[in-house]
Design goal:
Helix Hairpins; alpha/beta; 5 helices
Length: 299
């Protein structure tokens, strides 16, 4: 059994750990607030752009449409871009996403000639490496200072790769932010864009008389030219929003995880304090018994 001195050392160690977890919780809460504000500001813009792009895309099809809307007859190569974190201590943020990604790969690997996995975040690489899986590309340290310019560069590269036939479809796998305690793992196809449902706004274009009527507008410049300008911008906006969703989800998960760790430290300190008090009381009782026995022996 541990001595009273050992237990007091453990209490001191747990208190130091609690200070660290409490500080990490406060930092995560501060970063979550800023990232959530950025996300809430970006969502309405992305949703309204999706509505406009949907209306334009509904009128364009086949060769008259934009290349980003043209799906290929045979899907041979698929790229998956998974957004994980560079650091740990964020609960199930990485584990849940990576398990879903692994399940998807196991279920769909036979359907395609090649599935290219691009991992963003060190934790994703560590997860696959520990299980003997290989990834095609790894990027780390891109979350700090991620802005619309970085999203634009990424969207331009995706458009170029799609035009060159490097792959036939590209999906982003990320945690969609709902609240600090709730995130949904989402597989979103970003290229090619769908002419029926573009983006994450969940807005469907009318295909028959029973669906909602889409009004006619006069565009300046013409709709095909305007669509050609809007689609790359919309793809940039979607990528920017996806990264903001993942960043906010990470900070929310870390804040909740550190809050739970802080509470667990409090419970452990209470248990250790009770044990220390019992040992101290037992030591006092033994000393008193020695005194009484010595007094009795002198009689």
């Amino acid at each position: 059994m541990a001595s009273l001195k050992d237990i007091r050392k453990r209490i001191s160690s747990v208190k130091n750990t609690q200070k660290i977890t409490r500080a990490m919780k406060m930092v995560a809460a501060s970063k979550l607030r800023r990232s959530q504000q950025s996300l809430m500001a970006a969502r309405p813009y992305a949703e309204n752009m999706a509505k406009l792009v949907n209306q334009l895309a509904a009128k364009q099809s086949g060769e008259a449409g934009h290349p980003l809307l043209a799906t290929r007859d045979e899907i041979k190569t698929v790229r998956l871009v998974a957004l994980t974190s560079d650091r740990g201590f964020c609960g199930g943020f990485n584990g849940t996403l990576l398990r879903r990604l692994t399940e998807w790969l196991d279920e769909n690997s036979a359907q395609y000639e090649k599935i290219e996995v691009q991992m963003i975040g060190k934790k994703g690489k560590d997860f696959f490496q520990a299980r003997g899986r290989e990834i095609d590309h790894l990027e780390t340290g891109i979350y700090e200072g991620f802005n619309l310019g970085a999203a634009r560069e990424r969207s331009e590269q995706l458009i170029a790769d799609y035009a060159d036939g490097v792959w036939d479809e590209c999906y982003f796998v990320y945690n969609k932010f709902k609240s600090a305690i709730s995130q949904d793992v989402t597989f979103q196809k970003v290229v090619p864009l769908s002419a029926k449902v573009v983006g994450d706004a969940d807005i469907e274009v009318a295909a028959d008389e029973n669906q909602e009527y889409i009004p006619e507008y006069i565009y300046e410049p013409e709709a095909p030219e305007l669509l050609g300008e809007l689609l790359p911008r919309f793809l940039t906006t979607e990528i920017y929003r996806i990264f903001l969703e993942s960043i906010a989800s990470e900070f929310g998960s870390r804040m909740v995880a550190m809050d739970g760790a802080t509470n667990n430290c409090s419970d452990m300190i209470d248990d250790l304090s009770v044990l220390a008090n019992r040992l101290r009381q037992a030591a006092i009782t033994n000393d008193l018994m020695d005194i009484v026995n010595g007094a009795e022996a002198l009689k």
